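Render this sequence as a predicted structure.
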Amino acid sequence: MQPYFFPYIGYWQLINAVDTFVIYDDVNYIKQGYINRNSILSGNDSQRITLEVIGASSNKLINEIQRGNNVKKLLKTLSQTYSKAPEYDRVFPLIEDILNSREKNLAKFLGGSIVKISNHLKINTKIIFSSDIEKNSNLNAQDKILDICERLEVNRYINAIGGQELYNQEAFKAKNIELNFIQTEAIEYKQFNDEFTPYLSIIDIMMLNNIGDIKEMLNKYRLI
């Protein structure tokens, strides 16, 4: 999976479901996607937060882009939004530590944040970067994924539900690799108001739920 900025619960369900999670950092950056932005709670609606990036282009790989310097603005927004959240005192220092990282490379910065949040959620999955794997770089799309799977000697590949349109069961079967997709079940929890706003960043879940409850959420999915 590409590295994303504080992604939603389904991303962490995927990390929790596998033995090895590959951060797909040597693929093209997607403009207007979730690589450097996400949504948090704002009243009964969502509010976009964006990590500033430098030199962003769909012609560059994710690991060829640098992050910008809007950390203070992001921290101020997050503090104002969640200062009354039950887990604020435990979670905000983690967010501060992530955003104040000296790492300027976007892929490495996002990868570091994924590792730190995984540790916070007590997820023990091995996390590696695709750019660190020896592979045939001339391959594209599904063939590149299959090459990585073979080099890592895996017998099952799990992707997000959106990958159903990208990957072919028969191609994986021919390589003796089982292909599954993770489909998140409905997840609701107590936010500040009675109405529930779904599909927010993991920040919202961490601020409003204890680790025990989040661990239960991590298992609310089915493989198809």
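Summary. The two ends are 18 Å apart (CA to CA). Residues 106-120 form the longest helix (15 residues).
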